[in-house]
Design goal:
The complex is a heterodimer of chains A (about 325) and B (about 170).
Chain A: H1 4-9, H2 12-19, H3 23-27, E1 29-35, E2 41-44, E3 47-51, E4 57-58, H4 69-80, H5 88-93, E5 95-97, E6 103-113, E7 116-129, H6 142-145, E8 146-147, E9 150-151, E10 154-158, H7 164-177, E11 186-190, E12 211-215, H8 219-229, E13 234-237, H9 243-253, E14 258-264, H10 268-271, H11 275-283, E15 288-293, E16 300-306, E17 311-313, E18 317-318
Helix pairs in contact in A: 8-9
Chain B: H1 2-49, H2 53-62, H3 68-81, H4 87-98, H5 106-118, H6 124-171
Classes of the chains: A alpha/beta (about 325), B mainly alpha (about 170).
């Protein structure tokens, strides 16, 4: 796991602290949380720790390192390359994707204009989320989606942090490179730069050889753009749920394009109560619905349903 | 004989000084002009390409703008190597290092530093406003520099020769 892009954006004082953490922590690092004048926090392998001044990891937030105002400023300068103007959109959305596909969430004073968020000023909270591509997580599920070289429309359902996006990314890679099927043209609409983690338009994760990405593009519009211009056989989008998304999905499905997508939810019943998703599911748009959880680590497959919400499989296969 | 050689050397020296000073007077408005055009490039880099500051600066540094490219090269270098220090600090160091090598004076430097204070730390439209303002102020400086050149360039040049002649008369 290459943490170099992360080190590059950290000011020297914080970088040294993080770098001197034990190897076991670094290899399982999930998040680094920096909050001005509050203890430095790291989350690794699902556990959270505070970093004390002598590089010890503690659960007790007392006498830990408190990043200063100056360090937060430096961090923002390094993240933005001294150019806030180039990050207008990112500041509006509240996160920045850096090299390696890692994402940095920002919190602070929000400036609004006409009721809409304009940007985040006085950034005092940073959440550095380490992106991990786990190649092969989709292989176990792949035969369910791909039957006799025919790709099924897929909806992945899970609460946040259960590996939806990781699974989606790997499935895109498998279909695009043709591992276990004929290689298809894949189009990704990556509204939050999570799936491919693009930096200046170049994907930082391996999303396959035949994949085109519309980075930071609104989902509904992006799907239409792809259908019009890139002739994809499979469209991959994250987190559908709005009215426009449903329209675009209809447009795609009935144009012979297959769809891989995700939604938040902890059970199929829950998803079936959501207004837009309910209609899509009842219509039978999704031929396979996969439910994930964190029961035995992120990416635990809880159940697989078919288009009519009939249970196909409950076997827990931790991938 | 030796005296004569000395006189000639003296005359050459003072004439040389006169020409160098006149040359500086002539170079100043030209350099200001080039700085303004460099800012125009920076404007497109910021407005259209939305590149980050260090990349934009090194792009300008790669171009062949006499004298000015070096300034932007140094700015880019400082921005990338100072561990996230305040943008203005990085730029100020670069400007202070470079300025004495140019023919420009402190008034332009003040204008440029003032502009550096705003660079990078606001949204695009605000950056453009500051860029326009800096260009405008530099144009005023350029105009002043031109007037100065017009007034003094010839005078300094002849003064060099004449000062030499005067010294020779006094010392001979």
């Amino acid at each position: 796991m290459d943490l170099k892009p992360i080190y590059q954006v950290l000011p020297l004082s914080i970088r040294n602290r993080i770098q001197s953490l034990p190897r076991t922590i670094l290899s399982g690092l999930e998040e680094v949380r920096i909050r001005q004048d509050r203890p430095l926090e790291v989350i690794a392998s699902g556990k959270n720790w505070f970093v004390s001044s002598n590089q010890q990891l503690k659960l007790d937030p007392r006498d830990c390192i408190h990043p200063t105002r100056e360090e937060c400023h430096k961090l923002l300068n390094l993240i933005s390359n001294h150019s806030l103007y180039a990050l207008e959109e990112e500041l509006r959305l509240g996160y920045i994707t850096v090299e390696g596909g890692h994402r940095i969430g920002l919190a602070g004073k929000v400036i609004t204009e006409g009721g809409r968020v304009k940007h985040v000023r006085d950034v005092t909270g940073f959440n550095i989320r380490i992106a991990r591509q786990i190649k092969g997580v989709g292989s176990a599920l792949f035969p369910i989606i791909n039957q006799k070289d025919e790709i099924k429309n897929l909806l992945i359902v899970s609460p946040p942090g259960c590996g939806k996006t990781t699974l989606l990314r790997d499935l895109a890679r498998l279909v695009s490179t043709g591992e276990g099927c004929t290689a298809r043209k894949v189009g990704i609409v990556d509204e939050r730069s999570e799936i491919a983690g693009c930096v200046t338009g170049v994907p930082q994760h391996d999303v396959g050889a035949r994949t085109d990405i519309l980075d930071a593009c609104p989902k509904a519009e992006g799907m239409m753009m792809l259908i019009r211009s890139m002739s994809p056989e499979i469209i991959v989008v994250d987190e559908v749920g709005r009215k426009e998304d449903a329209d675009a999905i209809h447009e795609a499905i009935y144009a012979g394009v297959h769809l891989f997508t995700t939604a938040h939810g902890s059970s199929i019943e829950e998803v079936r109560k959501r207004p837009i998703l309910k209609d899509l599911i009842e219509e039978g748009v999704f031929e396979r619905i996969v439910l994930l959880s964190r029961r035995s680590g992120p990416g635990t497959v809880e159940a697989v349903y078919d288009g009519t919400c009939q249970l196909l499989r409950t076997a827990v296969c931790s991938s | 004989m030796l005296k004569l050689v000395g006189c000639i050397l003296l005359l050459f020296a003072t004439t040389g000084i006169g020409f160098i000073l006149a040359g500086k007077l002539a170079a100043r408005p030209k350099q200001i002009r080039r700085l303004i055009s460099a800012l125009s490039i920076l404007e497109t880099e910021i407005h259209y390409s939305s590149r980050n500051l260090s990349t934009a600066c090194s792009h300008i540094g790669d171009r062949d703008i006499e004298m000015i490219s070096e300034l932007f090269r140094q700015m880019a270098l400082r921005l990338t190597t100072m561990d996230g220090a305040a943008t203005y600090e990085c730029l100020k160091l670069a400007v202070q290092d470079w300025w004495p090598t140019s023919a420009m004076k402190t008034s332009e430097k003040e204008v440029f530093l003032q502009f550096c204070k705003t660079l990078g730390n606001s949204d695009r439209s605000d950056q453009l406003t500051h860029l326009a303002l800096a260009k405008q102020n530099l144009q005023v400086e350029e105009q002043k520099a031109r007037e100065e050149q017009f007034q003094y360039e010839k005078m300094v040049r002849t003064l060099g020769v004449l000062a030499g002649a005067l010294l020779i008369i006094l010392l001979y």
